[in-house]
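Weekly structure sync, notes
Attendees: PL (lead), two postdocs, one rotation student
Agenda item 3: pending single-chain targets
PL asked that the sequence for the first pending target be pasted directly into the notes so everyone works from the same version. It is reproduced below exactly as submitted, 152 residues in total.
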Amino acid sequence: MEHNHIQYEGRSLAAAAQATLLHAGEQWTPLRANVFDAVQAAATPATAYDIAEAISRDQGRRIAPNSVYRILDLFVATNLVRKVESNNTYVVNDHPSCEHDCIFLICDRCGAVSHVDIDELTLGLRAAAKETGFTPKRAVLEMQGLCAACAS
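Predicted structure, written out during the meeting:
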């Protein structure tokens, strides 16, 4: 299944995320913008606590992690961020208008997380689930190992 999508970065990524969220019927509030920016700025996948700390530091006032969790849940549901389930962290989705099952590649040494979109790998999984009457929502596939930089 061939699919071309646009990968955004920087301010264009934030604009694409905002457009995606508005298209989903949600508001792009200042706190949501701050959470998105904090996830985007993180060098490695960030926890809700990391994000709350970064925003609190930037704004000079405390932001509650449970507020950040609610926003992150919304962002996952609307495809703006992806959740790395094995370590409960979040990474920005650089192509928020595209729906894919992604496979996370997690470096055991430096903690870097990258992802690849290979829908063909999850088509069989989704079909098997549907055959049992199960309605799949999203597939979570993660692979531990060493990134190219750490392996060399």
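Discussion points:
- Strands lie at 81-84, 89-92, 102-107, 113-117, 141-145.
- The longest strand covers residues 102-107.
Action: rotation student to compare against the earlier draft before next sync.
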